[in-house]
Amino acid sequence: MTNYLAIDAGGTSTRAVFLSARGECLGYGISGGGNPVSRGFEGAIDSLLAASEKALGGIGNRFHSVTLGMAGASLELPTHLFQQRFITLGLAHEVLIESDLLAAFYSGTYQDNGYALIAGTGAVAARVTDSRLAAVADGTGWLLGDDGAGFWLGSQVVRAVAAALDGRGAPTALTGLVLAELDITLDPGVRTQGRVGAQQQLIVKIYELAPIELSRFAPLVFAVRDDAVAADIIERSADALAQTLGAVIEAGTPGTLVFGGSVLTKGGAVAAAVTARLADKLGAASGPEAAVPVLVHDGVVGAAVLALKRDGVEVDAAVFGRITESLAALRD
Amino acid sequence: MTNYLAIDAGGTSTRAVFLSARGECLGYGISGGGNPVSRGFEGAIDSLLAASEKALGGIGNRFHSVTLGMAGASLELPTHLFQQRFITLGLAHEVLIESDLLAAFYSGTYQDNGYALIAGTGAVAARVTDSRLAAVADGTGWLLGDDGAGFWLGSQVVRAVAAALDGRGAPTALTGLVLAELDITLDPGVRTQGRVGAQQQLIVKIYELAPIELSRFAPLVFAVRDDAVAADIIERSADALAQTLGAVIEAGTPGTLVFGGSVLTKGGAVAAAVTARLADKLGAASGPEAAVPVLVHDGVVGAAVLALKRDGVEVDAAVFGRITESLAALRD
Lengths: 332, 332
Prior knowledge:
332 residues; Nucleotidyltransferase, domain 5; 12 strands; 44% helix
C-alpha cells in the first residue's frame, strides 16, 4: 500500500496529514506558520517539519511523496529549496509544490473544474480547469488590492472612524469600538491646535502598528447593528469580492464553487451577498444549484486530494468522503 | 529697526527668510527637508540651520526671534529641542513654533480668519479664527486618511491597474503608463499558475517600494485623456477633498480661502471641482467672491507674516505686499 504526506502551509499555521492511497488519514499534525514570505525560509521549513513529524508519529516515514500546498507556488519563491531539504532528510523521493489556492479548492471537492474564492486577510479567486489554475484574480496584497478582505475591512473601519471624528464622515458606532480597542478615551470637545484629541491619539496608535495589523479591526464591522457606516463597508466588501470572483467566471464553464477564509466562512452575510450579486453569472457558468458554495476552513484536505491525484490515484466521492471523515476523527 | 528670521520647514525642503518689521525681505535661503518625523531631529536641525545661514548671509544675525512653521507643531514632537538648539547657538532670544498649516494659510492672506486646504502627498484642511487653528480635518496620514491627495491618488492608480490586468476592473490607459514607469513588459496572454505575467511583475515591483512612494504615480492620473477610470479617480479625489474642506467650514464664519499643495495648485482641475462642490457652503460662510481660492506654493511668506504678527506688528495689505514682492525678488 502506498502512503503519502500532504501539507497545507499557511501564514499562521501549518497542517500535515499522513494518508493511504485509499484516502485513510493515518496521522495529523499542526504547527506554526509555514509561509517563507512571512516566516523566512528556515522558520517555514521548521514549521513544515514539525507538522510532518507529528503527522508521521510512530508510524514510520515510508511514503511515496510529499505534497506541499503553499502560497507563492505561483510566485518567485525558492520552492526548490523545500524540495532539496525534504529529500536530504530522507523524507521523500519526490516533493510536489502546489498552490495553496488549488489546495483550498480541493478541500471542498474532488472534481477537477470549478471556482474558488478565498477571503481571509487577503482575497483571491481562481478558475480551476482540468485540475489546474486557469485564471487567478486579485491576491495582489494589501497595498495593491485584496479588495474586500480582512486587511481591507480593517482599514476601512479605522478610516471611517478617523473621518467620523473630524466630521468628514458620518458618526458611527465603530468609533466607540475602535477607540476602546486602542484604549483611547473619547472626549470630542477637546481640540489641540484645532485637532480633536481622540483623533490625535488614534493617529499615534495606528502608526505604531505594522500596516497589515489593521486586519484586527475587521471583525468590528460585523459587531455593530443598524449602523449605516458599517453596512456600507460590508456592502462594498461584497461588491469587491463579487468583482474578484466574477473576473474568473467563464460562461459555459461549470464547476463546483468553493468559498474559504474567515470573511466568507464566519457569519455568512458576505458570502450570501457575493453569491446573490453573481447569481446570473454563476447560473450561466454552473447551473443554479452550483451557486451554493462549499465552505472550507483550510487546505489540508485539498493537499491530501492533490497528493493522490498527482500520483494517478482516482479520487471519487468515496475516497473524498474517506479523507474528510478520517481526518475529522484525527482532529477531534 | 527690529528684524526677524522666519522658517518654513517642509518634508522635502526648508525655506528661511530674514526680514524687517516693515516686511522687507533682506535675505533668503533654501535647504533640504526639515521635518523631524521624516529626517530625524539632527537631520532636521541641520536643514533649518543651513537655510537660516543662507538667509542671514553677511547681514549679521541680530534679530528678535525665530519663527518656525513646521508639520507636527500640533503633534507630540520634541519641538522644545529646536528652541533649545537655536537659543544655544545664540541665534535668537525667542523661538516660536507654529503649525505649517497656519504658515500656509498666511502665505495667501494677512487676514486672521478663513480656511486653508492643502493637498500635497497628504491632505488637510483648517479653519482659522482670530489667527489660531480653530478646527482641523484629515491630515491623518496615508494609512488612516489623507483622502484625495498624492499618496491616495497614486495608490488608486496602481490599484486600478492591478484590477484592469486581471479583469476585476475596466481597461485603462493608466496600465501602459504604470507598466512603462516600472519597466514591465505587457504581455497579457501569458499566465503562470493562472496569474497574468504583467500583474505578477507589478506585485513584485510595487512591494519593493516603501508604501509612501506610491505617490509618484499620482501625476499619471492627470496625464491621460478621455479615460473613464482616470476620470473616476479624479472625481473621487475632488469628492474627498471637498469633504475635508467642508468639515471645517462653519456657516456664518467668513474668511479668505487658501489652497496649497501640488494636487490643487498644478493644473487646477481638482481645485475647481472642489470649490464647485462647496459653492453653497462657501457662499454661506464667506460670500460668493470668497469661493475663489488664493493659491500658495509653500509656507515661507506665512512664516514671515506670523513672525511679525506674533510680535505685535500689524500686517496690513501694504506690509503683506512688501513681503511677497521683496521675497519674489530674492527668489529670482
